[in-house]
Amino acid sequence: xxxxxxxxxxxxxxxxxxxxxxxxxxxxxxxxxxxxxxxxxxxxxxxxxxxxxxxxxxxxxxxxxxxxxxxxxxxxxxxxxxxxxxxxxxxxxxxxxxxxxxxxxxxxxxxxxxxxxxxxxxxxxxxxxxxxxxxxxxxxxxxxxxxxxxxxxxxxxxxxxxxxxxxxxxxxxxxxxxxxxxxxxxxxxxxxxxxxxxxxxxxxxxxxxxxxxx
Length: 214
Known about the structure:
6 strands, 214 residues, BirA Bifunctional Protein, domain 2, alpha+beta, 45% helix, 17% strand, 6 helices, six-stranded antiparallel beta sheet
């Protein structure tokens, strides 16, 4: 199956699911999910796989064990290509349209310490800042969970203290629900965006695995 875009029915499905997030609604409309959401996402990821690798297409079911929100189904469909632990490329379809991004969403202990050391380094830190500036110029937003204060061991007046506060470092570009998302052009949009994100992902991977950045 070649990728032809995400049909209007996909957005309608998620609009309705946000209103009626129940098993009865899901059972009555699961064929719509299979044909209009999952199948196009699989086709998109299959066409990107030769360059970026095999994507994990996330299951539609929420893990509600430790959540106050007990609604059973996710109101978006995401796919992730890993370039390292909790690190890689992401694409998502939701009622708000298509979003493309990447970065790291979790780094505990030694991995986070290695990333912060690379951010603080006077050679590799400015390289990261340049990657992020380039992405911002290309329409990406830089985000991710951050500490409210300086991380232990780093001065509040460090020139990259805002980056050092990150517990996650994520970039994203939203395309909304413009007509283009219903066309095959989405494939090249995602491919171009992931290529733009690749230097950031490479920097983060090198910081963790080799202690080197370029």
